[in-house]
Amino acid sequence: MLGELVHIGFGNILAMNRVIAIASPNSAPTKRIIQEARNKGQLIDMTSGRRTKAVIFTDSGHIVLAALAPETITGRFQILRGGTVIKPELGDDKIKL
After folding, report:
1. Helix/strand/coil (H/E/C) assignment for every residue in the chain
2. Is-contact 50 44, C-beta < 8 A?
3. C-alpha atoms less than 13 angstroms from C-alpha of 6 in its C-beta half-sphere
């Protein structure tokens, strides 16, 4: 079964039905998870050499690195589902969906 596919930049497509969470790559625990996934061979780098802005956790245990911000990816998913995107206000780090 083919799930909802979202373009995450540079010709890369992600099946959103397999996504558990999307996080920022800046925290120490997230960096540690990325390194562990790299060591296990479960890291998928979809940044095309750009800076990582989102870390995507999948139900298969794979970690996907994306060059788009988490807000951009979730916004594209909301548009795909026919919803509206509410952009975060200045100083508000949380996206409202």
Report:
1. CCCCEEECCCCCEEEHHHEEEEECCCCHHHHHHHHHHHHHCCEEEECCCCCCCEEEEECCCCEEEECCCHHHHHHHHHHHCCCCCECCCCCCCCCEC
2. no
3. 20
CA-to-CA distance for 57 and 78, rounded, in angstroms?
18
Strand partners, 46: 66
Q: Which two tokens stand for residue 17?
A: 């039905």
Cβ contacts of 69 within 8 Å, gap of 6 or more: 53, 54
Give tens-digit pLDDT for 6-37: 999 999 999 999 999 999 999 999 999 999 99
Q: Determine the Cα–Cα distance for residues 77 and 91; give it in Å rounded to an integer.
A: 23
Query: pTM for the full model?
Result: 0.83
Tell me whether strands 43-46 and 63-66 are parallel, antiparallel or unpaired.
parallel
What length is written for the chain?
97
